[in-house]
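User: What would this chain look like folded?
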Amino acid sequence: MKYLFTIPIVAAISVALSGCGEVPAQAVSEQSGQLEAPNKATSILNAGVMTEMSRKQGASVKFLFDPLYDDHFGSLQQLTPELIAAIVSGAAPYDGVDAVFVSHAHGDHFSARELTRLLTAQPQVQLIAPEQAIEQMREDASWQLAFESRITAITLENGEAAQSFEVAGALVEAFRSPHSGWPERHANTHNITYRASVRSTESGAVSRVMHLGDAAVAAEHYTALAEFLAVKRSGLAMVPFWFYQEDNLNAIIDETLNAETAVAVHVPENVPAYIADGKQAYFSSVGEVLEIPATPE
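Assistant: Here's the prediction, encoded as structure tokens.
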């Protein structure tokens, strides 16, 4: 069984995720098409994820991670024109987005053209991306100088201290993680991991997620940031699917990344057997939903 709540199925399921603790049972409402939880992650396609984290009753911070991309390299699902149009224009359920995050400037995670169109169509949206991606967007014919005030460009070295800033009331912390294959491949690719935290002004509870892009899995890549990661526990880590090949997956999620739960993203269209066995959560279809557990401050 796949540990997800898939729209529009009505379900109440309690699952254990890879030994990292119990995920509380939640229901999917057939009427609303939404998981009845204040904090949730919803799959787009590939590494694309939408997160909604409650700031107060009826108001959430909504982020998109790697939502638009150009290439599928023959193994990944392609975005349909209808899905691209909805994300770009801000049609439901992608309405009210506060910010878009780009992990790195590879074609299976990033589209300069479509993101430029999104900034044009949705003047309230902020963009957070590595400088390498922003440079490509500035070359697009539709680029506007006015976009610069809505952009946070990340330029960091591997192992360098995280950069922190506020986005729509959320604390965002960004650090560079070596791209998978480093150093033989993609050594110069700035792959950014984002950790985003939202505190409820009513309950004081904190919701926190991490999105790792195409991060390499080896624990030594995170040694320089061990104290930073240990200070705050994330409810959900969105990890590239190859993390699930590791025999010490539980330790990587629970100890190295300091997260309660994880979901695999960037999953190929032909889901690998070690993922398809359903022992861990993964996203592979549009609209799959997973709760983001609240975590200690």
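The helical segments are 81-89, 112-121, 131-138, 226-231, 249-256, 273-276. If you want, I can go into more detail on any region.
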